[in-house]
Amino acid sequence: MLSIKAYEALALLAFSAALLISRRLRHDVVGVITALALVALGLVSPLQALSNLSSVAVVVLASAMIIAGVVADSGVLDVLGDRIASRVTSGLLVIVIVLLISLFSSGFVSDVALTFMFMPLIYSVASRVRRPASRYLMLLSYAAILGGRYTIIGTSSNIVLEGLWTQRFGRPLGIFSTLPVGLAAALAGLGVAIALVPLLVRGSAKGTASLEMVGKHEILIEADVEEGSEVVGLNIRQAEEKLGARIRLLRGALSIYSRRTIRAGDKLILSVERDRLPVIMSVKGLRTGLGQGPFYELLVTGSSAVVGNTIYEVNMRLRDVKVVGVATRNSLGSIRSYALAPGDIVLVEGDEKAVAQAADAYRLTPLTTTPVKSLNVRAAASGLLGLSVALAASAAGLNMALSFLAGALLAVIPQPGSLRKVYSYVDWSAIVFIGTYLSMGEALISSGLGSAMSFMASSPLLLMLAGVVLANLVGNVASAIILGPLAISSPHPLTAVIALSMAVSSTFITPFSHPANLVVYSAGGYTPSDFAKAGVPVALTVIVVTALMLHLF
Fold this sequence. Notes:
Layout: H1 4-22, H2 27-40, H3 46-51, H4 56-73, H5 76-87, H6 91-105, H7 111-128, H8 134-147, H9 156-169, H10 179-200, H11 205-215, E1 219-225, H12 236-243, E2 246-251, E3 254-256, E4 267-272, H13 277-281, E5 286-287, E6 295-300, H14 311-317, E7 322-327, E8 345-349, H15 352-361, E9 364-366, H16 377-395, H17 400-412, H18 416-421, H19 428-446, H20 449-452, H21 460-474, H22 476-488, H23 493-504, H24 515-523, H25 528-552
Antiparallel strand pairs: 1-4, 1-5, 2-3, 2-4, 6-8, 6-9, 7-8
C-alpha cells in the first residue's frame, strides 16, 4: 500500500512530466517549480534541494560544456571536415566520414555544436551529389546523438547517472564504463540510420526547396538609382542584361515588373548570384549599401535567435556585422522589412571574427566556402589539454567534479577570448534543470514510490523500453533522473545503469526530445512523423544491440 507521501510524489511527477511534454514552460522553470513543490510538501528538505545545485552531475556537466566549447570554437573539427571534403572525391563517402567523425567526437564534444558545425559541409556535399540536403541532415543529428553514449561525459543523462552512482556507492563510474556497449550500439544504430533514413524521410517540399538554395541560390539586395547612373533610361530587360541580375523595380509603394524605364530615385531589388556582386558594386550611380567586404552567407535555422525579426531589427542588434542581402523562397516587399524565416540565407558583411561571434550568438550556420571560423591552434591545444587532464585525473580515481573543473580551467586560461566567453559555453537552462529536478528522483525513493516501481529494476529490457519512451517525451535528462534510482537499486546495478544509459540517450523518435534534432527539424522541412518513421527503427536497433552486448559481457 502506497503512503500519502508516495501519492504526493506520484502526482507531482505526473504534473511535472505533463509540463515537460506540453513545453508550455521552459524545462528549467519546470525544474524550479518541481523543487519548490517538493520542499513545500516535505518530500525533500531545503538543504537537500539546494545541495543538488552543486552536485557532481552539475559540476561535471558545466565543466564539460566549457571544455567542449573551447574545442569546438578552436575550429579544429571544421578544418578536419574541410580537408576531408577537398580530398575525397565521392560525395556520399564524405557524408559517411563526416557522420563517423560526428559520432566519435560526440563522446567529448557537444552533440548540438557538432550538428551546427557540420551542417554546411552536408549542404555542400548534397549539392555536389545533386540530392536534397534533407536526406542527410537527420542522419547528422542522429550520429551526434548516438556517439555521446560511449563515454560517461558524452551526454547529460550519462553524467546524471554517474552522479547518482557516485552518491549511492561512494565511487565514480569510469569514463569509459559504457564504451563496449555504447560503441556497438552507436555504430549499429548509425548503420541502420544510413540505410533507412534516406528511404523513409524526404523532408517537406518547402524545407527541401530552402535547402536546395544552399547549393545554388541568388541573393536579394536593394540598390538605389542615383542621378547619372548607367541604368537610367534603360528598361527592365535591358538593365537585367547589363547587370546580369533579375530586377524588381520599386517605385514608391509599387512593385513594377513591366518594361518601364528606370529613372533616378528608383529603388531596385536585385536577385544576383554571389559571384556577381563585384559587378553590381562597380556600376556607376547604383548605390547598394555594400561595402568592400568580406561577405559571408549564414543559414537561418529553426533555432536561430533572429527568426521572426526583420532585417532592419537584426541590423539594429548587430554591432560590427551588417546584413546586406537575403536568399529566400518567400515573398517580400523590401529587404529591410522582411521577417527572417527558417531556411533563409543572409548575406552579411564584416570581418571574420565579428561574423563568427554573430553566428555563434544568434545560432546562425555558416555556409560560405570561405571559412568563417579559422583554426586557432592555441585554443585547440588548450582545449585538448584540458580534456586530457580531466580524463586522466578521473581515470586515476580523483573526484570527477574536481577533475573536470581543473580541466575547464586549463582549457580557458591560455585563451583570453575563451575567458570572456566561458559563461556562454554553458547551457545554464540545462544546469538549472538538472540541479533542481534531481530532487524529484530523490523524492521517488524516499517516499517509497521507488519500491512500487522496483519490478522494472529487475528487467533491463523493461527498463530500456520505459527509458526510450520517457526520454522521447520528457527528454533524456528528466528520464535519467526519474528512472536512475530504480536502475541503481537493481540486483545488478552496473548492468541496469548501462542499459538505462543506452535507452534514455535514444532520443530519435520526436524532434523535440533533443536539441540536435531541433537544429535540423526546421532546416530540413521535416515533420514529427518523419522522426517517428526513422527514429523507431534506430531506437529498436540500440535496444537489441544493447541487450545482446549486456548478455555477452
